[in-house]
Every structure is written in C-alpha cells, then in structure tokens.
Amino acid sequence: MTAVLKELSNSKADDAEWQMRCDMAAVFRVASRLGWNEHIGNHNSLMLPGADPLFLINPRGMLFRELTASSLIVCDLDGKVLRGKGELRKVAFHIHARIHLLKPQATCVVHVHPQYLTALSLLDETELALAHHNNLLLNDRIVYDNQGFAPVHDNEEGDRIAELMGDKTIMVMGHHGVTSVGATVHEAFDELYIAERTAMYQITALSTGRKLKTIPDRYRRNYHGPWGDRMDSRMHLDAWRRQLDKEEPDYAT
Predict the structure, then answer these.
(1) Domain housing 210
(2) d(CA 94, CA 79)
(3) Which of 170, 215, 231, 233 fits a disulfide with 186 by CB distance 3.0 to 4.6 angstroms?
(4) Which CATH number fits the domain that encloses residue 55?
(5) How far is residue 123 CA from its own chain's centroid?
C-alpha cells in the first residue's frame, strides 16, 4: 500500500488520502496509549473524498498499537474490501457503514470502549451531570442508547443506532461503550477525548459517596455546530502526532 501511494504522490487526491491515513493511524496509537480499545476489537473509520462512497477502517485482528497509515483498508458501503490487506469485521461494518450512509456529515466515526464512558454506560442512570465546565458544551451533543442489549450483527441494528444519533456527535451506548462522529478525524477524536475526561471526573467524584454540585442550567452552551469551531481539536491531534513522530514514527508508514 505504501509503495502504491508513493507512486501516486503527484496526485492531490492521493496526497490528501495519505494525510488522512496518518491522522487515523495517530488516533489509533493514541487510543492504545489511553487504553480505549478492547483487545483486537473496536474500530475507527473515515470517509474518503471522491465520487465513490468509500471509507478507511482498521482490518480485523490487529491491535491499535500496531496499526499504521498503510495498514488501513478501504471498503465500500456494502462492506467489500477494495484496497489493502485484511478483512472487515462484521460488527464494524454494521455500525460504521450504516452511520456513514445515513449520516453523511459523520465523515469520521470512532467506536471504542474507554474506561469511564464505558463505566457510565453500565449504570442505571447513565447521563453526564451538569457539573464540570466541560459539561456546558458537551451535554447537548450527547445521546444515550438504552436499547443496545446485544452486539450489532445486522443492518437493522446499525440503522437504529444511526437514526438514534440524529444530530448528536457522541453516543453513550448502553452496556457497550461509546461512538463519536465528526466532520474530521481531529474533531471526532478531540470531542471523545474531552468526553472521556469529563466522565472520569464525574465517576471519580461520585466514588467519594458525596453528592455532585451541579451548575445552573442557564450556563449551558446549547451548541450543536462543528466541534473544531469551539475547541483546538486540530492543534490537539497535531500535538499528539509530534509525540508519535518522536516515539512511534512507524505509525506514519
């Protein structure tokens, strides 16, 4: 894959794809460092620019920490692998392809099992409180799925998830984990990063056995626009990439 892309390096389209691959690979490596993924499971996808609806995704069976820019596979929305080595995991297809199909603005879809948001998904009362300053921006962007009682094994369940997400950008999936979507890789990653940190604060505070202090509702931002317009999401991912360039430079190969 790397050799093919280098041969096409004069094409702006292929240069753009390579940069998207490097961003995706960086997110996989950071997610591994943060302990977001479930052994060789979990999956992140990204729609590629162009007339044909194709998306990048990690192949089945690889740890997040071993993924590279060139190891990502390209699939169509029917789940057929068109480029790259490996197969598309069935559950990944039913979640990602259906969200990309039914929610075109969701260019990037990140589905992982980070510790604190996943713990939140297991509780009877799953919602984030309006307790931390982060909640003022986040809470109106989150939807909670309380009907996901089993793994996703068909398009019907994938469609239900996509429809439930609506105009939200984060879904806390009951009994499961979390899915974040964004117009770019860095926006989906950064919003999920902030949400996981915020869940960590809430669960840590609740572990004291004391009641949370909440913020008056009038301070909510009520913002549903692009995450990157309010947060330094591109700068955040670039900062991680500088660390990876020093410590795990093979991610961008």
Answers:
(1) 2-247
(2) 9
(3) 233
(4) 3.40.225.10
(5) 22
